[in-house]
Each structure stands twice: as C-alpha cells, then as structure tokens.
Amino acid sequence: RDSFPPLPRITTVFCFVCLLQINFVACQLFALLAAFWFRIYLGPSHASSAVRHAFATLFGIYFAVFCFGWYSIHLFVLVMMNYGIMNMASIPNIHRYSFVVAMGYLTLCHISRIYIFHYGILTTDFSGPLMIITQKITTLACQLHDGIGRQAEELTAEQNRLAVKTRPSLLEYLSYLLNFMSVIAGPCSNYKDYIAFIEGRHVHMKLLEVNWKQKGYDRLPDPSPTGAVMYKLCITLVSLILFLTLTKNFPMAYIIDNEFLDKAPFLSRLGYLYVVTQAAKPKYYFAWTLADAVNNAAGYGFSGVDERGAFRWDLLSNLNIWNIETATSFKMYIENWNIQTAAWLKRVCYDRAPWYPTALTFILSALWHGIYPGYYFTFLTGILITLAARAIRNNCRHYFLSSVPLKIAYDIVTWVVTQLAVCYTVAPFVMLAVEPTIKFYK
Fold it and tell me: Counting Cβ atoms within 10 Å, is residue 359 exposed (0-12), middle (13-18) or buried (19+)?
C-alpha cells in the first residue's frame, strides 16, 4: 500500500476541516449579534423567563444543526438520556449515573470519530460541544445531589452556594445545556448562575454585595457589558492575526524533524520549543475570548466590582492571558488556562475524590479531552510536574523572600522553569500520537 492517502481524500478532508472552521466562526459572530439583540429586546424587563429560555434554546439548536449537520444528533441524544436519568434516578446516585452515562457517551464518540470515521486530528467537530454539554450535565447532577441529597453541614461553602434544591423543568434543562451563547464553544457555567441570568437576578445579586450609598449612589447602577465586549473582541482580532501569521509558520512537527535535531544545539531546541508552544496558543485565545464576549453581549458574565470600583465581566472568562504569560509556577499557569474546565474538574472530581484527588483529576481531564495517546502523556506528566513544583515551592521559596533582589531573581528563574516545563508537558498534547511523542522525549 502507498504510505500516503490518495490526493482526493486529502482534498476532501481539508475542505471538510475548512468548512467546519468557517461554520464555527460564522455561528459565533451571528451568536454575538443575536446576544446583543437578546439583551436589548428580550431582557428580563421585556420578556418572561419562559420566552427567554425558549429563544435561547431554539437558537442554540439551530446553531448546532447549522454548524455540525446530522452529527448534532449526538448532542440531543446525550441531553435527553441524561434528562431521563435526572428525573428517574435516586438522588443519592444521580451524580454517579449522570457522570457514567455522559462520560461514557463522550468517550464512545471520541473513539468513533477517530477510529471509525477517520477524522484524524482535532478540528471544530461535534466533540467540542459534546464536551461542554458533558461538563454541564455532570455539574448540574452534582449540584442537584448536593442540594437535595446532602445536609448543609456536609457541604463546603462553595457547594452550599451552588446547590440546586429542585429538579429543573424540561425547558430550563434544555436552555441551560443548549443555549445559543454557549452551545458551540462554551464555557460551562453553574446552573444557578444561568437561571439567575435568565430571570434577571444575575447582575442585581452581585451589585447588592457592594454598599453603593457609601460610594455616593442613590440607587443601584446599571452596568453595561459593551465596554467589556469591545475589549474582548479586540483580543479576539489580535489572536486571529497571530493565528494566521505565527501558528501556520511555526509547526510543532518541526521540533522532531531529523535535520533540526541533528543540527540545532540544545538551547536552540529549547528556544524553538518555547516559540512553537506560544504559536499554538492564539487559536485557543481566539475561541475562548470570542465565546466569553458572546455571553457578555447577552448580559451574562457579570462578576461584581473590583477594588477600584470598576465593573467586572469575567465570571465566565476561560483564561487570563497576562497571568498565563507571566506565571512563575505550574499551579499559577494551569489556574489561568481553561479556567472554567479547571473549575469543573475541581467541583466534580477533586472536591469529591475519596483518594488521590490530584491524580484522579488529571486522569479525568485526559479522558474528557479524548483518547489520543498524547493527551495521556501530557496529563500524566502534569501530575509529576505539579507534585514536584509544589514540593520545591514549599521547601525553597521562603529562602528568597528576605530581600527584593533575591525575590526578583527567584521570580525570573521560576518563570523560565515554569514556561519550559509547560512546553515540555503540552508538546505531546499537540503531537497527539505515540511515535512523535517518544521521539520528542528522546
């Protein structure tokens, strides 16, 4: 057999990938416009909660079908299966059954997508929305279990705040899982926050946490998300430009090119590894920031007021670019990357794991992402890096806090080490397969 697939097949796959990416961007931009319209004309003062739920659900279903065609049936099958579980399962087991079914169905779809339909490397296919819906299903199931099946004294402060006391109606359930703001690219949010947004209590609840009379206000202000949306759209535009210029010109595959390995000195290889890792980030910055802007445009994502009195719209933000690029510890890096997924992992796994919470959380993260071997190399390495970084920080950091020069030197060294450790850890995640990963490690 030839070592390469026939040219028509390559052309077909390439066109399919391009079409999926165009559909993704088109849907998100249309969702952005729909979100502004939703906030202005279907705001809580203009429409009932039922109307807002119905509109968000129907548009979300339309976007899913438009973007993924008949593959979107997987989203609807999973949603309805777990709605049945939520209504028929006993409360003590509802989170277990929902978790097993949602993760099991997601894993089967990962397997079929790769090994049966031969999709190859990850693109914007239906598995992305399915991953987000899996997060929401398991989040709701755990919070429903906390609200009905456990006593308040058994819960942490966060679990108590997010606990759901009653089963949602079908319309509320569909709206939470399939709303047009998050069905394509997320992020996952908490059920109580989403319902408060639909019912018009979302912003008001956060504003009541501040004493506005001391600040000279006679009544509660009305924060607008427009400034936050414009700022995030600027980041999205810059990320898109970087993706089109850097990402295509610095492929990760070059790091294991035989000629490069033979001729490039060790420090040059480390430097190029950092560059290609940086070049791989803009597509994530683009997708996550645009998704955040869509939710903000609809009026969802208000998180309160900062210490300077400025309104914050980062409740659903999925990354903090400044903290990522200046991280001086592995923990700081992963806490600011894919923030909502990290929060989901903490709530459904880390806080509930009976033993080895760190290891189980990394394993769940790998399983949720898919079944490419590279994911497991990355997350298993992440376990070791996390434990090592924690031990070094606890045993060494205090020696460098006695003077400003020592602290600056410590921060510079830990920044370099953190960035290189991240590059080393995530390279298999980008390479996906076993053979290039082993070659990279060698």
Answer: middle
- What is the per-residue burial (b if ≥16 Cβ within 10 Å, else e) of 80-94? eebbebbeebeeeeb
- What pLDDT does 216 receive? 67
Amino acid at 14: F
**Nearest in space to 219 (alpha carbons), one of 230, 208, 205:** 208
List the catalytic residue out of 95, 336, 338, 398.
338
Question: Pick the catalytic residue: 53, 74, 202, 369?
Answer: 369
In this structure, of 183-187, 198-202, 226-230, 262-266, the range with the lowest mean pLDDT score is 262-266
Cα–Cα distance for residue pair 415/13, rounded to 1 Å = 40
Q: pTM of the full predicted structure?
A: 0.90
Q: Of 37, 69, 68, whose CA–CA distance to 55 is shortest?
A: 37
Structure-block tokens of residue 432:
């996906």
304 phi, psi to nearest 5 deg: 120, -155
* Contact call for residues 149 and 163 (beta carbons, < 8 A): no
| CB atoms closer than 10 angstroms to residue 372 | 21
- pLDDT confidence band for 119 (50 / 70 / 90): very low
- Note if 369 is an active site residue: yes
Peptide bond before 187: cis, by omega within 30 degrees of 0? yes
CA 172 to chain centre: 22
Mean pLDDT, residues 167-189: 96
The residues facing 304 across adjacent strands are 312
Report the Cα–Cα distance between both ends of the chain, in Å, rounded: 30
Q: Higher pLDDT residue, 7 or 302?
A: 302
CA–CA dist 204, 212 (Å, integer): 12
The Cβ of residue 331 has, within 10 Å, a number of other Cβ atoms equal to: 15
Nearest to 341 by CA among 27, 128, 179, 160: 128
Query: Helices 373-396 & 357-369, crossing angle to 10 degrees?
Result: 150
The answer to whether 93 is a known catalytic residue is: no
Question: Which 3 state secondary structure label does DSSP give 133?
Answer: helix
SS3 298: coil
Rg (CA), the chain: 23
Residues 62, 208 contacting (CB under 8 angstroms): no
- Pairing relation of β-strands 304-305 and 311-312? antiparallel
**Cβ–Cβ < 8 Å for 309, 209:** no
- For helices 170-178 and 127-149, the axis angle rounded to 10 degrees is 140
